[in-house]
Amino acid sequence: MANLDRSQPSEMNAEESHATKGLLRLTMACNEKCPFCNVPAEDYSTLSPPMDEVLNELQTFIERGDQTLTISGGEPTLSRTRLLTLVKTAKEGGIRFIEVQTNATLINPKYAAELASGGVTSAFVSLLGHTADLHDHLAGLNGAFDKCLAGIDALLDAGIRVALNPVTAVTTQDHLDDYVAFVAARFPRIRSISLSAVQPHGRGANNVELMPDYSRLHASVQRAQAVAEANRIELLNPYCGLPLCVGWEENLGNSVEAIESLAPHNPQGVDNHGNKRHGPACIDCGLRSRCGGAWHAYWDLRAGTGIEAPWEVSAPWDPEQAGQEVIDARGVSICDCLKTISKPQMPVRWVWVDGLESRDLASIRTAGVTHIGIDIDLGSVKAALKGLRRLQQTNQLVSPQRRIQIYGRIVSNLDSLNVTQIHDLLQLFRALDMTRMYATHPGKHSGRIARANP
Hints:
It is built from 13 helices and 17 strands. The chain has helices at residues 51-63, 80-92, 109-118, 132-139, 144-157, 176-186, 214-230, 256-260, 296-302, 334-338, 361-366, 381-395, 419-431; strands spanning 22-25, 68-72, 97-102, 120-125, 161-164, 167-168, 192-194, 196-197, 234-236, 276-277, 294-295, 324-328, 348-353, 371-376, 405-410, 435-439, 447-452. α2 runs parallel beside α3 and α12 (381-395) runs parallel beside α13 (419-431).
């Protein structure tokens, strides 16, 4: 599992989370021409920044106390002298864990030994397929497969920990289990694979046909997990990987977004940084707070194929459901009720109330509440409107998976509505966002009567 505390890294966490380390791009030049590259050389007017700029940026990381550093590109091993200087400086500055992201095609035993003696502790290698045909096609370079394998051997022999980064494409989406089996047989010293997927960015935006089909990937990912578990290989779902419903719903502990959603600074769940979103299938998903959703282009070009809620949230007044926590704050002060609540460990945290005021909202968000269930008497609709409208306003300021959903339950008899109450009820519906509304009748079960989509 990735270590969320930058000041407390471990030998096992250097490449598991994009949020636990400083990142330096030494050069944007690359000897491969991956058709999916999300940071292609042609997007940069200057391929290699001056070395003094790179060292100044490194000094910033050192001064803030970073203990892990990733050196990336492009292909950083193209700049051998600069790379070795940077590694040595980082080590002398107190950075204990130094990772190089590389395609490994330029690394021989001598180069690997220099990296190790300089301070490199791990390498994140883009081995893209388990056969030469699959790998070389995605690398855009004939002969890259054999060179990559030799480079990996050299890194391992030099004592550098290697994790692999296969970027799953449509050409490899059905072979993930074969890939893991190949790694287990060919590289028994490798214990970690980070299962990325083609992004619709950079060259990938011009080759969107390379994006894998999530409906095919669900079963493929689960087969790969079984092979990895059998061979004691840690299979990870990174930020640039897949939505949780695409094979990861039972393995949240190896999914970076789900892990980071539990960090103290994320009381409302993971932030998708604006380049992903949730779709209709995600609205009622019980894992919504743990998942950033899918890339915008996947919704736009693939209509979200293969994205389906593993399980749906149920109202707090319905029978108890696994994965949900219900805090009953009816008849008591919401702020007082929530002030002693610890950080949620379940994906869904309900607070069930019989009223909502604007002053309650800060406590609700700080407590990591994902859903509010509110009992509404028709005589008190107007009183509820102000708090609900304020919640709607604050919901628009956060990313979609951090928006608190409201389930309202009308506890009065609807058969005796008058004109004023109908008007107030319509106003209530307009105030609700990402919401279900229920009604109860005396002596009967509650029933859903409406749905307001975001």
